[in-house]
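Quick one - first record:
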Amino acid sequence: MTQHEFIDLPPLMSAHGTVRLPGSKSISNRVLLLAALAQGTTVVRDLLHSDDTERMLDALRILGVDVESLGDNAYRVMGCGGNFPNKNAKLFLGNAGTAFRPLTAALALSGGSYELSGVPRMHERPIGDLVDALRQLGADIRYLGNEGFPPLQISPAILPNELEPVKVRGDVSSQFLTGLLMAAPLLGRGVNVVVEGELISKPYIEITLAMMERFGVKVWPRLDGNEHDFQHFVFFEGKSYHSPGTIYVEGDASSASYFLTAGAIGGGPLRVEGVGNTSVQGDVRFAEALEKMGAVIVMGDNWIEARAPVSGKLHAIDLDCNHIPDAAMTLAVAALFADGTTTLRNIASWRVKETDRIAAMATELRKLGATVEEGANFIRITPPSPPAPLPQAGEGSLLRHAAINTYDDHRIAMCFSLAAFGGSGIRINDPKCVAKTFPEYFKMFAQVTQTVPVIAIDGPSASGKGTVAQRVATALGWHYLDSGALYRLLGLAAQKRGIALDAEEQLAALAGQVDIRFEGENIWLDGAQVGDELRTEEAGSAASKIAALHKVRAALLDKQRAFRRAPGLVADGRDMASVVFPDSVLKIFLTASAEARAERRYKQLKEKGMSANIAALLQDIQARDERDTQRSAAPLQQAQGASLLDTTPLNIEQAVQEVLSRYRALESK
């Protein structure tokens, strides 16, 4: 992974708005395959555009199925009645389990020779239970690598004269049963499927049965009119798939979980459209779990809306998650904001997904400060004590800033984006992995979340930016960052340790170690309060020298960004608007003539009883301006998008009011 393959999410303060969900991955790939297996032409609308569906579309085209893009996520599929025109093909299916498992079953019974492979992780995901079940139907499947795992070689099946009940395990992955059920009608004979052990992820089987019924195949027996016992599935002879004409794909209910949780943590209301009361997806029940945690949930036929708890905080839950296996991952991150220990049970299927999700979630949650216990089929999360406050419930940062590894798993990337509400922001490594199901996720997430606002005030030495910034922060009730003080403190710490001001490596290492704290107007260095020594010309000159060092600036970057906390931050320096906080809501380049700045510095020093020479001060300011504008590391210049504020004719109060006026003008837009 290159150093650029990450996305930094700044601290988030609120979330509200409306999101139109992309199509469901589970429904999309089921519908595409069923349309290919059916008689007639099917128009599929609102199909999910993602890596997984691209793998299915590519596979169907290689198999000779006529698939035509109609634009706007719509496709026309010419069904082949299960008789694929291409009887000999090699298919690469990436890490798309919703394509690999059902295609394995369908191709095993379609009379051709096929080789199926995927990415290395797919070759670690078990498929033996499905292969064993298909072999009971006469399928000829050979493992090309490790026994029980892809890649696979499929040859034409030899059907037995008598079909005994087909047994399939249900406690590893529901996709095995889904593949078997979708392929069974291709036999044209009566089939009885028996599930051994407890069936996990039952809602996904409900999706399978609902989609099969849309294509004309009902599965029996039915209990209480329309329910299955999920242990026995009976197909009657002569049943085959027929096109429904046009079919619409529901929004992805698993993807809804991230936005609903954002609404619960970030205040809301945040509405997701595309799923609701009438959805066939089991993951819509994620909203019930969030409601148990205290969120305010409202639901319509095709939408769900979430708001923060009335109490202002979420509550821990102990939940059997068999009914929402994918969406339950989002609850693990929501647990960081809950009061108490959250336990998520019956999640053994996490172990055989895109990665070992139980192990991966435990590892990454610990980075944020959580205490995590993991078992074969559960995860238990205790947040930092006390839990991270909801943004509206109080300021502070109780979640550590961390770089989250995503293990090429789209759901890990998306659910950990919610940790940005913990006050410190978050880095997501390899964010492009969301393309598997939701390529536009981070763009849509940004549209409905609001970052902690920053006013960045840059400018030359002695321009008054520090005083202006501090008073603007006080007027708004925001936090304040004097970035120049960080460099002065580092220079002071270097002098105390005998480190030369041009020893870049040593200074960068020191920047990562030194303990710096601001408390009101007081500044602390390594546990000791420091005062006027930071405001001397010597300290300023030292700061200017070390600030020109690239590695020092990089080492101090995270320390500066850590000041960004609710309700907002006013930061002053040289590169606040261009490098440290490029997403600032207001960027000011505050300046004044060198003569005016020298006079202000002279008065400031005299008021503190310190000796000063105005001619020497002017010469020093001019020299520092030259050095600061010419240096290669963050040269002093007006950042793109920054507005100029020349304070030569203004006093401090006038300058403060001008900054406040510009900010309020932006607020009113």
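second record:
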Amino acid sequence: MILCLMVLTSVAGMATANAPRAAAPESYLAGYLIIPIAERVDERYGAGFSMHVAAWELLDHYPGHQFQTGLPGTWMFAQHEGEPIKNAYSDVEGGLGWWRDTRFPTTTPKFIMGGVAPNFSKIANGPSHGWGTWDKPRGLYGVAQLSPWLLFPIDGLNVKQRARGELFGYGYLSLPLCDPKPTTRGQNAPTGGECWTLFLNTSNFKGPAAFFLPNFWSESALEDTRLVGKLLDSRPAEPNRAVQMETQYIPCRVAEDGHGGMYARIAPTRFPISADGRSVLVHRDNVYDRTALWDAVSRWFEGGPPASGSIAESGTHVRTFTGKGYATWEIRVAGRDGKETKVPLDWNAFATPAAMDPATYGYTWSAPPVSSKGGLATLPEYYRLQDADDAKKARWVPVAPDQVPVETGLHSITWRTPIEDPQEPYTTPDDPGSCWKTPGPVAGPFKAKLGDGSVVTYYWYRFADQPAMLNSGMTDAERERVQARVEKLHRAWTKDRRYLPPPTVGKLAALDPPQIVKPPKGLEVGYVPIATRQELPAR
């Protein structure tokens, strides 16, 4: 392979002090960090999972809305019996990261739930957040708010600004909140009773936050009968999940010197680093069976003693890491024919995967070329293309800045946040006859100003009367049964108790404090905050 590239010029989020030698298509860095698990787990651990992942500012400047990358995360699929159904991709992904449709981004990651109905027919990212429009929702009603103490912004949960590698604990456990039904939307297709509930473990909020309504999954079976009883409303979760860090876009510039040598510069890209030079990325990836939480909650809802909410150790399996792993990060350059040239980054030249203990995975770094300051390690910025004529050997190897010819213009790049058009507010229906107004909220409006600069308007709804519940396909009587169960949770499960097993290394990340709310007097039990608008304040 011979790379025929010229100097790359203007890219959103970057500016140069001096004009480069010639123009060429855009380039960027993308790929995965693969985090291997040491063993396969028994399928009985299908009642959910949790993990603690590092939260940090990957880039020192937000590079614009083409930026999309997750921090370490996972994909939770339904268990299948026999051969999996073809052309029916469906899971829970999301996690910490940045997305192109994030309206109010900063350098600090946000958290979304990321429910995917078969073949991306619907997406549910949180209460009031998903695909489609309010006239034709495709996941906007897929998640019900559960906690009375946590405001879930439409744009995603905010981590407290300036995160530096603190551990964000989260996971999904099934709770018996909704009863299984023999029908879906009145049609002869069952809806299961698995309510996959987001549990959080942060320094200022702990416990269940929201859950995927079962009909988010089961409605797909109305159009494809192969899916009846095969999705996450009815099936346990697959415990043998992949753990990876998926990166789709980090800004990059590529240039050629006068002798045909190719060089690249990536935007400053950072990882958390401790005083001993290690970067912890994932800790305590646990999977659970029914005895961990479901059984105790089920007995409670049937009239037994209250469940504490603390996950039983006897129903927990801690997955271990091999300490190996690899990167598929590569610099991609668009050719004049529209095709991309992809050449891997020599990740091993500066990063070594490591298991700090069997339950903790991360990296150690070579210094130089990696530098560290303020709790963050910055990866090499400059690279030279090596073995360009050999498709199997070609790679970008890190080089010191003084080894890059000045004539490439790469030294003169200034990485900046671009000036973009203002993002439109998130809004919800205000028609008096809509499910947002009838029966409607019982208190509000209230406002919360977040660390991302946005303002959230929210109201308090009776749990069973929140718009997602009104669109859940349940009858009034079915919603009232769920209401009674949720009231039990609100009385017993406060935001400062232990739920997920705590980390044994590092310290917990914090949510942006304005998201922690207090119910109005008289609404402490059975009511939840629902965001109805999110916008940037007028300047």
